[in-house]
Amino acid sequence: MALLSVHHLTKHIKISKGLGASLRGPHASWIKPVEDVSFSIEEGEILGIVGESGCGKSTMCNLLSKLDDVTSGTIRLNNEDVTNVSKGKALTHYRKQVQLIFQDPFDSLNPRLRVFDIVAEAPRALKLWEEPEIARRVSTMLATVGLPPERYAQRYPHQMSGGERQRVGIASALIAEPKLVIADEPVSMLDVSIRAGVMDLLRDLSRRLNFSCLYVSHDLSILTHLCDRVMVMYLGQLVEVASSKELVSNPQHPYTRALVAAVPVPDPRYKRQSIAIKGELAKPIDPPAGCRFAPRCSLAMPQCSQTPEMKSVGESHVVACHAVSVSELSGVGPSDRRYLQNIDQQT
Ligand SMILES: Nc1ncnc2c1ncn2[C@@H]1O[C@H](COP(=O)(O)OP(=O)(O)OP(=O)(O)O)[C@@H](O)[C@H]1O
Ligand SMILES: [Mg+2]
What we know:
Layout: E1 2-15, H1 19-24, E2 29-42, E3 46-50, H2 57-64, E4 72-77, E5 80-81, H3 88-97, E6 98-101, H4 115-125, H5 131-144, H6 149-152, H7 162-174, E7 180-184, H8 192-209, E8 212-217, H9 220-226, E9 229-234, E10 237-243, H10 244-249, H11 254-261, E11 311-314, E12 317-319, H12 334-346
Parallel strand pairs: 3-8, 3-9, 6-7, 7-8
Antiparallel strand pairs: 1-2, 1-4, 4-5, 9-10, 10-12, 11-12
The structure holds adenosine-5'-triphosphate (ATP) and magnesium ion.
Magnesium ion (MG) binds next to helix 2.
């Protein structure tokens, strides 16, 4: 059974207009950063989200971590509908199970608290344990993320490097023993030299402490190194989901192909096939109906004005594109069938 399943998740934001614009026309404009997205995360799985800036990755994280309300669609955690959880005990229970690691290790830590109190904040707020037990667990967690408590527990954030601060962020997220960790570009603000260390730590901890992870990045090479599966978003829509290996070796959606073609290969003899995406980076304000990638797609055809359904093209591999030839449902693997049936049940 999936730990988290998301069905037709949608977020629309109405843009408030000035008086002049309101007088010129009656129609409101809408930003549509997440549109009809369905996927699931299995227990212990690391699932990546990749897509260019503004495609809705952080909005998705905010919806799943209850920092923002959904417009429509459902979120189920352990098969329980948590879509409308927004306050009280239900929200506290949700926060114990789902924790967020922030992008910015410089801004996300309270500069007036020592590391010990930063990590102890969540268990204290959630009233998880008595104070001696919290102290014991904070020390253990600091040691687990590679910050020996005797050296780091009494420091302030400004007395640490970016990589060390991000380790504090990871310790804060993991101390409550969540089932799901949502990591929104947790290494993008760090030096390249320490990124690999933080990512390896996260992967190692997810195996040891057995939590699932939704890991966001706009860098496909990071995700294929870290994740079991990767899903590709374009302008709020999910366009392809596959295992990391399958996605890079057999990309199907024209946008995914362009992303894969852009990943550097450390071999001077390798002859790259460059795939250009035409046109400007689009904005999610009043996006076109149908496939949102169509205006930039070299394979676009008349059907693309209709939103393509998510279809299976192989084991654990689904894609939403009219131009991609599709195998029949009877010919696909069990995980694809489960994915498609899950989606069908909700429609
Ligand atoms: N509350 C809001 N009001 C107005 N626009 C919003 C709001 N939230 C998100 N957006 C817009 O929705 C789009 C998606 O934003 P989001 O932060 O999810 O992108 P992202 O994929 O995380 O990008 P990045 O890789 O740059 O972090 C952007 O164009 C953003 O300006
Ligand atoms: Mg973002």
